[in-house]
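Entry 14. Ran structure prediction on the chain below.
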Amino acid sequence: MKLVWTEKAQRRIGEILEYIEREFGAKARQTFREKTQDFTRILIQFPEMGTLEIKEKNLRGFQLTNQTRVFYRVKKNCIIILTLIDSRQDPKNKPK
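Output, structure tokens:
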């Protein structure tokens, strides 16, 4: 199964990594990066592991860390990472 990151998701992961390094240091950044890589490896094997958020749009969510939730969609042989959000944000900010 192919894994694709949208531009928005790529931008968000970059922002999150910068924030973590600035606030908590390079080791914390590396830990988050490794956790994200582990998640994507498992996601490729089990694409439906996330919670089905919006059935009609096949939108799934997965709580990556206490603060970060990943939203993605599965289409045929492709997993599309749509965005990552701070789970402390207003729920209206999640993808629709």
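Residues 22 and 29 are 9 Å apart (CA to CA). Will compare against last week's run tomorrow.
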